[in-house]
Design goal:
The complex is a heterodimer of chains A (319) and B (438). Chain A has 319 residues and is mainly alpha-helical. Chain A is built from 14 helices and no strands. Classes of the chains: A mainly alpha (319), B alpha/beta (438).
Chain lengths: 319, 438
């Protein structure tokens, strides 16, 4: 005679559930239950991501101005897109952004990898040094912006003072954030100072993931240190480096706070990045339709470039 | 249990009613955070004492003032019952129904705009410009003026050096070119063992600084926005030979007469440069002059003031604001009562005495007015020739276009003055075309 099954906690809970509800839950398929759990997230995503995106696309074809609620909104077709893409100022801003992006990434990768390579050795004070190096990236960009504004001040700033001390060039004769062509390089220096530790940490993770036995095998094969570096270290760290480049690329494409505090896009438009330009169009000039088109163009650009880059990254990882 | 619930409900209702009543007796006044705002806080204590209304204040630093307050108005917020908003906002505020049209209220209360200086009524109150539609009461007259180190100007060694260099006596400049000459004379000079510079001027890029500074020169050369007022016909006016010369002058002043690093300077930096003893002269709004005169280090007998020097014409850049009732207020009666109180001649006299710049004729036309402060006469003279930027609803686009063109030419050294002004016409034409005005 078979024994009656001993009720487990799930069965006990099911039995304790009132009959109508239990019948309803029992009647649902796994897929339906999964939908119930996922639906709030999907709803939120639609509400705060997809709907604004679609709304932005719609606005980009109008002359809507958010500060002029009583003005009639006109459908202007592709006029906003045409204006943006044929505007010399927009292309100059794109060039400034590209200059900032390329140089910050190059410098951060070279310095970050070098620091990681140097620090990936056992020596006394290694941990303390690592902590000190990563300090800048822990600061708020607003603090960094204000802090470097003082450092770059021509009359009392440390940077100009040091240049005078080392080269004899009078401190007051040049301005790092002012006219004279130095401002684009000054913002690159600050971003590199702040974010190189981030690249260093990612490279360090890559370096520490390489098993020692690979180097030991290379030693047995009498491979030189130089050859070990190029045939073991670099290829194995490359996916990590590419990831760092992706992160820094996306972050710096939308760079706003630090540069806005340092230069506000000036002098003139010398450091006017696309994000600052977009903010001005949207929330200072209140050209909502125009700035929507601008945002869509930037979105497509970043999305396209990032997609191509991620494909390349996956290929490198597969090797 | 029921009794407890009833008692709790009654207590909550009473608390809510008390709070609602308190809100009805409260007014929030929004303005920029600067010296005159502090004076208004003191002055408003009289209003509180007379009416029992509690005054609250929301003062926003100048660089964020427009962004913060225009966003507030645009989003239908109820932060401000009263607003002392910038003169350029009035077109947009009237068009978007952000401000209450005050004509009926003025008529009912016997407040006459004829009692206020005409230039201030035109600039701070009317929309469309010059039409008798009043959206504000002139509250704070202001213009861009100059101040200088009187003690340095009086020193024999400096006067002798100036005489030797320029062939004339050192004194308050009567023309823009004399001002440049004095700035260049002081530039890099050693005074009491310290290197000093000529003048601190407005060069700020982000909000309105360089436009407010450069128009001081442009207006003095005879700059006009349109050939015929209201026509938006800018070719030949905005880029006239006089305008080009004035802009070239401003750039020369910046390049040869200002302290190093002052490439993004506005009100605060101008004050800092002067108070720290770096410059012989500085431009700034008259609103700051009482505070400068009271400064223990560089005020008193060390400072004096002069109106923006003429070149072809006598003219100054207009500052200042009117006080408006925000249409969205939930305390309309209280807000109007404040305007009524503020418009009284006696209150206006106290306002001037406290450090505010009254626009009321009872103050300005008082025979003793020019003796009440060392800058009072200059203020009167400046207000007689003020000119303002566009006050169109699209003023923000117009202003930022000018900021960009001027900063690119004056500070970043890009292109010529002619190109900057030609480009400005192109920018403004596009804006007016979008507005359907061209």
């Amino acid at each position: 005679m078979p024994h009656p099954p001993i009720p487990g906690p799930i069965e006990a809970a099911a039995r304790a559930t009132p009959a109508p509800l239990a019948r309803k839950v029992r009647g649902l398929s796994d897929r339906a239950i999964a939908w119930i759990f996922v639906a709030p997230t999907i709803f939120l995503l639609l509400a705060i991501n997809i709907f604004p995106l679609i709304w932005t696309v719609r606005l980009s074809f109008t002359n809507y101005a958010a500060n002029r609620p009583n003005r009639e909104v006109e459908w202007v077709g592709l006029r906003n897109y045409t204006r943006i893409l044929t505007d010399e100022g927009t292309w100059a801003t794109m060039q400034t952004t590209a200059h900032f992006l390329i140089w910050t990434i190059v410098l951060q990768v070279v310095i970050g990898f070098t620091l990681a390579w140097l620090i990936n050795r056992k020596f006394k004070g290694n941990d303390l040094l690592t902590t000190l190096i990563v300090l800048p990236m822990m600061l708020s960009p607003a603090v960094v912006g204000n802090f470097w504004t003082f450092l770059y001040q021509p009359q009392i700033g440390l940077v100009n003072y040091m240049v005078e001390l080392l080269t004899g060039t009078p401190a007051s004769s040049f301005s790092m954030l002012g006219p004279g062509g130095l401002a684009p390089w000054s913002i690159i220096i600050v971003d590199t100072w702040m974010w190189t530790p981030f690249v260093m940490l990612i490279c360090l993770a890559g370096l520490r993931s390489i098993p020692d036995y690979i180097y030991e095998a290379a030693e047995v094969d009498r491979a030189s240190k130089w050859r070990q570096f190029w045939t073991i270290t670099v290829p194995m760290v490359l996916p990590f480096l590419m990831l760092a480049v992706l992160f820094r690329g996306i972050e710096n494409f939308k760079m706003f706070d630090m540069v806005n505090l340092l230069t506000g896009g000036g002098p003139g438009n010398e450091t006017l990045l696309t994000s600052i330009d977009l903010k001005r169009e949207a929330f200072e000039k209140w050209r909502t339709g125009y700035s929507s088109a601008y945002a869509i163009i930037l979105f497509v650009t970043v999305f396209g470039l990032a997609s191509i880059y991620v494909k390349a990254l996956n290929k490198v990882k597969e090797r | 249990m029921k009794r407890t619930i009833l008692a709790a409900s009654a207590a909550i209702s009473l608390a809510w009613a008390a709070q609602a009543n308190a809100q009805a007796n409260e007014l929030t006044l929004c303005w920029a955070a600067w010296d005159p705002a502090n004076a208004l806080v003191e002055l408003s204590k009289d209003f509180e004492a007379q009416t029992g209304t509690k005054m609250k204040f929301e003062f926003v630093p100048w660089p964020n003032f427009a962004d913060r307050i225009l966003n507030e108005l645009n989003s239908g917020g109820q932060l401000c019952d009263l607003l002392i908003g910038d003169s350029q906002w009035i077109g947009g505020a009237a068009e978007n129904n952000w401000y209450v049209r005050l004509n009926d209220f003025f008529d009912a209360e016997g407040i006459s705009m004829d009692d206020f200086a005409p230039a201030t009524v035109y600039a701070y109150s009317t929309w469309p410009k010059g039409e008798p539609n009043y959206y504000a009461l002139p509250a704070m007259g202001d213009a861009n003026g100059w101040f200088y180190r009187k003690d340095w100007f009086a020193r024999d060694d400096i006067r002798a050096a100036f005489q030797e260099t320029t062939g004339r006596e050192l004194g308050e400049p009567k023309t823009q070119k004399e001002l440049l000459e004095i700035a260049q004379f002081f530039q890099g000079r050693e005074i009491d063992g310290k290197t000093v510079y000529g003048a601190s001027i407005f060069t700020e890029r982000g909000s309105e600084g360089i436009t407010m500074g450069a128009t001081g020169a442009l207006y003095a050369w005879g700059f006009k926005y349109e050939n015929t007022p209201g026509s938006y016909d800018m070719e030949g006016a905005v880029n006239s030979p006089e305008a080009v010369e004035a802009l070239e002058f401003y750039k020369e002043l910046y390049k040869t007469g200002t302290p190093p690093g002052y490439d993004n300077a506005y009100m605060e930096q101008s004050l800092d440069a002067f108070k720290s003893g770096q410059v012989a002269m500085a431009m700034n709004w008259f609103a700051f002059f009482p505070g400068l005169y009271a400064d223990p280090n560089t005020g008193g007998d060390k400072i004096d003031f002069f109106v923006n020097p003429a070149q072809n014409v006598a003219a100054s850049t207009l500052g200042g604001q009117g006080i408006s009732v925000v249409a969205n207020t939930d305390n309309m009666d209280g807000a109007l009562a404040y305007i009524k109180w503020f418009a009284q001649p006696e209150v206006q006299k106290k306002w001037w005495a406290a450090g505010g710049y009254s626009c009321h004729k009872a103050v300005l036309e008082d025979p003793n007015f020019v003796n009440t402060a060392p800058f009072a006469g200059d203020f009167l003279e400046a207000m007689g020739g003020v000119q303002d930027f566009w006050q169109e609803p699209a003023y923000a686009q117009l202003l930022l276009a000018m900021q960009e063109r001027l900063h690119n030419y004056v500070v970043a050294d890009k292109g010529s003055a002619q190109e900057a002004l030609d480009g400005l016409i192109a920018d403004w034409t596009e804006v007016f075309q979008d507005e359907g005005k061209l």
